[in-house]
Each structure stands twice: as C-alpha cells, then as structure tokens.
Fold each of these.
Amino acid sequence: MESHIASPDLASEGKKRIEWTLKEMPVVARIAERFGQTKPLQGLRIGACLHVTAETAVLMIALKEGGAEIRLCASNPLSTQDEVAASLVQDYGIPVFAIRGEDRDTYYAHIQEVLQFRPHITMDDGADLVSSAHRLRGEILQGIIGGTEETTTGVIRLRSLARSKELAYPVIAVNDADTKHMFDNRYGTGQSTIEAILRVTHFLLAGKRIVVVGYGWCGRGIAMRARGMGARVAVVEVDPVRALEALMDGYDVMSMSEAALWGEVFITATGNVSVIRGEHFIAMKDGVVLANAGHFNVEIDIQELEDLSVNKRAVKPLVEEYTLKNGKRIYLLGEGRLVNLACAEGHPSAVMDMSFANQALSVEYLKNNASKMEKDVFKVPPEIDREVAALKLTLLGVTLEKMTPRQEVYLSSWQEGT
Ligand code: ADE
C-alpha cells in the first residue's frame, strides 16, 4: 500500500494508543457500529487532511467501517503522532502521508498524494486541502462532490472563497456546529493549551501573569483554565463586545502594547497575523514565554523576532531562546505552531468525540445531499448537532428532562400572559 510515514515499526505502540483513545470516544464508536452494519459510505473516496492523532485514527476507522476508501495527510507539519500513522497503515490498512516535523515541501507533497487519489469528499482542518484542490483545478476538482471543514480558520478561508464565487463544491463547516465549537474550541483548546505549556516549561501557574490574545471560543477556554490554575489573566481583544465580555468575566482587558509590559506568558488565539510583533517584543520583560494556540504559525511574527535577535538556541525540546539586541530573552514554544498539538497531544479524546461525530455524520449527509446543495459553506444540519449532543449525554449516562404536553402547548401559543 502506498504511504509515507516515519516508520512502520512504530505500529504496535500506535495500536495501543488508538485502542486507549477509542474508549474515550463512545459517540464515534456508536456511529461506527451503525456504519459497519449499513455501509452508508460504500463507494465513497474520502481525502482527509487532519492532525494525524489517535482521535483522528478513530474517525478514519469509523469512516472505513462505513465503506469509504480513505487517504490521510497531516494538516500541520508538527502535529503528527508517528506511531498512530504507522498503526493506521499497518493494522487498519488506511494509507497515510504524514511525518512529524516534515518540511513545507513534504507537507504539500503529501497533500498532493491525497488529491491524486481523486477524492469525492475532502475533509479538511484549516483548508489547505481545499485550497490546493482549487489551485490544481482540472479533473480532480471536478470529481469532488463536497467537503467538511473542522476549524475556525478554515471556515474563514472557505467563506472568502465562496464570496468570490470560486468555491467549486458545497462544504459543511463542522466548526460552526454548537456541539463542536462550544466544547472543542473552548474546553478542548482551553485544557490542552495549558497542558502543553506546562509540559514543556514546567511552570507554576499560580500567580503567573498570563496574557490571552483573542477572546473567541478558544481564548475564552484558555483564559478560564489559566485562571482556574491560579494565574492572573489579562485579555487583549479588538472586538468591543468580546472585550466587554472578557471584562465582565472578570479579566483585565488591555491593549497589546500595555500587555507587552505586563505579561509573563503570552498565548495567541486570534486567527490573525502578527498580533505579537516587533514593537511588543522590544517592550517585553526579560524571560517571557510566547505560545500560539491558533491554527497557523502567523500570529507571533517569528520573522521579526529573528530579525531583532542576536542569538537563538534550543534550551529544551520545543523551547527556543531568542536573545534580543537589547539583551532581553524571549522563549518561543513549538516554533510558534499550534502549541497544544506541537507540545502535547491536542484536545482530549472525549471532546474530539463530538467534533468527529459531526464529521462522520456530515460526510454521510453530503453523500446523500451534496448534488442538491449550492457551491457554498453550510452549517451542520441542526438535527445532526442535536443527535450528537443527545448521544453524548446518553453515553455519559445523563437523562434529559422532557416537556409535559401542557408545557409544549404553552410554549407554542401566544394567548397566555400575566
Ligand atoms: N485538533 C485539536 N486536537 C486534536 C486532536 N487531538 N486530534 C485531531 N485534531 C485535533
């Protein structure tokens, strides 16, 4: 089988990791069971560009159970778990093109391998697969019937493609499902970002001055979890409503210039470019730590950091020390790539369970409905969102309250008032 992975010898370690993860993902397991019985994805080729983790492996196995043929590549050069990639190839017969630490050329060569497979469905995390397919055009693009997108940054890119009328097929924005962003972005990013920073720095968070840049779902989660560990948290935001929300949630809110003078650890989660840049590096205290929790490594202006530095060295795995011309030292985690996957294992499996349940059900929906859909970006159908929430609750052993007939009538009428 065609594949490009670090080493097939890692498969047995990867298999144990996938099996451990599987028991934390009961919703996807339940869907896989149904897929196995009814084979709703029979005949479908799926090209997936996702972080190659044990959670992704569980999703890939479910799709294969459903009858799909799959090829998988990485959505970030530094997030691949090589042992998982090996097990997918060796134990589950799923071709993978991903090696942790691959360079940019290899990263894009792997995306090409997935596109050469002529997928009917693209499954993306960040929209690199979709944008590569659109650059390639031709037969490959024409053969694609639909796609799914996992993350905020990818959805923003796809909406821009749709606005310019260039999007060639319908895409479901999995990120926008309530059962995705309210949990994965908030609790998943919140916990795993803090975990990643602690893994590589071994810091005590109590009393630490942490600056969270961006107060979207991810920023909210990071700020909440940092405060939960006793850190002093400040938020930097450009949107007045979100800034006000952060203030009333009890955080200090300040501009990036003010935060640069105050903070000890800086975490970006904006989806935007150069939110921490030269003017801020120069103002920072000696010894500060910078981490990025956004999808791309553009939020911290690494080029400007390099230009302002007289020396750079690795002080521990995934921690680089930059010495500035003014003598101060700045520490960058995981090359400024998304820290939770570069320096730890990404979001916990239990939260990926909901995100990937949405992915699996959205693919099934596209198989049945893509031909009737416009070339646009769509929300996950609400019935899928509700099904994922209901299944998760059931599998957690939680019972939902039911409305009485009288309550149903009351809520659907206008006559009853004071
Ligand atoms: N994105 C964030 N965390 C992830 C994980 N554990 N697996 C796949 N994609 C992710």
Amino acid sequence: MDTNALGFRRGKSLLKLDDLSHDELFRMLRLAAELKLRKRGGVRGDYLSRRNVALIFEKSSTRTRCAFTVAAADEGGMAEYLDIHDIHIGRKETIADTARVLGRLFDGIAFRGFKQSTVEELARCAGVPVWNALTDDWHPTQALADLLTVEEHFGRLAGLKFVYVGDGRNNVVNTLMIGCAMTGMEMVDCCPLELAPDPELLHYAQGLAQKAGGSVSVCHDPVKAVKGANIVYTDVWVSMGEEAKTAERRALLKPYQVNMALMRGTGQLDRGQAVFLHCLPAFHNTDTVATRESGPMEVTDDVFEASFSKVFDQAENRLHTIKAVMVASLA
Ligand code: CP
Ligand code: NVA
C-alpha cells in the first residue's frame, strides 16, 4: 500500500480502531483538528474532489450518516445513502457480489450494521476502502470524535482518568477501551458483572495501555470508579438490535445511572476538571417515545444539560473525524 501526501496508507479501510497504528491514530486526530479549523474558517476543501462514496446502513443513524454526507460534500465529493432495504444485499445478492459492484462504482464504502463479519466481507471484496460506521462489536469513528473532544477540552490525552459507566461490553465501550489504551489514559470500564467486557479484549487493551503508559481496568462500583475522573462517559443501556432486553437492562443498570451525585463524586467538578460525554442518542428525559412512561435511563437531564456536558461538541466532532478518515484513505 503506498502512502499519500498526508502520510496515510492510500486505500486503507477502517474496520476497527486499532487498524490505525499508534502514530496514525494521533495523526488522524491532528488531521481532523486541521479540517475543523479550515471549515470554521469558511474554507472549502477538495481532498475528496470527484470521489463518490456509498453509505450502506442496516441500522438507524442521525450523526454518522449526516457526518459522512456533509464531510464528503465539504471536500468536493458525493455520498449516496443506501438503506439496506432499498438494495439487494443479503437477500437477492451476496455481500461479496454487492461489494464488487459498489467497488466498481464508488471510491469508498461506509457500512453500519449488525455483524462485524459483514463489514469485513465488504472490505475483502470491494477493492476500495471500507469504513465501519458501527457494528455490534465496534464503533471506531465514534471513538475518534471522543478522543478529539477530550483533547480539545484538556489539551492532552495521556494521564487523564476516563471512566465509562454502563453496559460494559457494547460497541462503544469496546472501542473506547482500545482508544484510551492507545493514548495512555487511565481507563475504567464500570459495569455490572453480567455486562463485563470480553476478557480477551480486556487483556488485549491492557497490553496496549501498558505500552502507552496508561491502564485499563474493570470496576463494578460506580462510586469508587468515578473518584478523580476527568471524563465520565455513558451510552444507552440497550443497543440497537437488543430491544428485547430493555426491562432486564433497566433493572441491571439502574445503579449505574450517571446523575449529579455521581458527577460530584469525581471530586473534579468544582475545579473544572471533569466533563460528561455520551455518543448520543441519549435517554436523558421523558421527551422520547422510549422514555415517555419509564423516565430517563443512563443519564439524568441535569447532567446532560450541564455546562460540563460536552455531548454536542462530540456530535460535531463526528463530522471532522469522519472527514479525516475518508481523506486519509482517499486523498
Ligand atoms: N453516535 C452515533 O453513532 O449516532 P448515530 O446513531 O445517530 O449515527
Ligand atoms: N451502543 C449504541 C451506540 C449508538 C451510537 C448502539 O449500538 O445502539
């Protein structure tokens, strides 16, 4: 694989976060920050000029879908949204055949869906870079936005205490374990025993952390876990595709709700040294169909709306980091 002018491997896919080397991860964050500055300065780029990208979505999305679309347009490219129900993939046509067709028409493919094996099969067969826009296992473009948001706020990553509280084995926390490990943070995955991360993944992340001077651990006590935390992060208790488990998860995760008492327990709020993050969408009030009767879940409204909540910075950073990912592969 040859290297482009920006120093990235041309044509490379991003199927999970550690497809990036340690060095590439940091350069990707730099590139995203640069692209953000350019956009803020009103400069329209042309890194993706004459590039067409396909966005195959098997699950719903607001941020990721829109970030890919706007990012492509900002850099002179074009994105075509393909709802899985509107194309033949997996029904009248194999994943491999769809990949080979789209690879002839498009310069890159983003995929969001259930199985990690689907995005891997697309990458194997398409002949163009494929980007994981979320699977059951990983959410790499989310973690890039999260790292950028943390770095913007604190001016660094290494040495910060990053505590994830909630479902400790979903796509978002799996990826954060890798991202925090690679960047030398002190990462704690705080979750009930029943929702603990895969031991093999934990072991792997701990190895990465050791190399970068950080740590990754699991804790089942939220009060203990958040002490000294700079970042308290949560995600939905029920990920897409797990809706049947809603009642069970509510019961299991109630003690892990991020509320004001838990945020105060960081001991860092008064010093301005703690932020709240959430990948969104979030169940923080009773204004959604899902929470109208049952109330908020993973985070209370006062935390979500607090000045230390940086969730909309995170959401914006999805655009700049996804743009960097496409530019790195295609420029
Ligand atoms: N955080 C995130 O991936 O949001 P969407 O599901 O709206 O894309
Ligand atoms: N864990 C969540 C993330 C949504 C962005 C899900 O998979 O539904």
